[in-house]
Amino acid sequence: MSQGDKPSGFAERYDYRVDILRRLNRVTAARDGVVLAESRHTLIVDEQDHGIVFYFPRADVRLDLLEPLAGHTTRCPYKGEALYWALGGEPVAWSYEEPYPEVGLIKGYVAFYQDRVTVSVGTAPSIWERKQGAAA
User: 2-15: buried (b, 16+ CB within 10 Å) or exposed (e) per residue?
Assistant: First the structure.
């Protein structure tokens, strides 16, 4: 997908906030007891006028359990065009394959609707564990 001639919303609203933070906490997304994603390498996306959303690296998402929603896309003026995945026919996840440069960190990450799956945040490894290489 290409953003083509659709400029980023930041061109007109340069002060609009989409903050992206890396996290080491173990974060899990599950539905009806089935783990759909689990990672210690998530991103928190805190977008102005929106709730906080966890984005999981694609490699940590069980895409084999999800159905791609072919032809179903939406466009966010600040992040780009989103693709969607469903579970049981209901959209539960999305990603931005070619996000705008201002939010380029989310490329290769998948987010879940937090009202359709349970997103749980666990602990992060201690400094000692990180020094020992246990934060895999």
Answer: eeeeeebbbeeeee
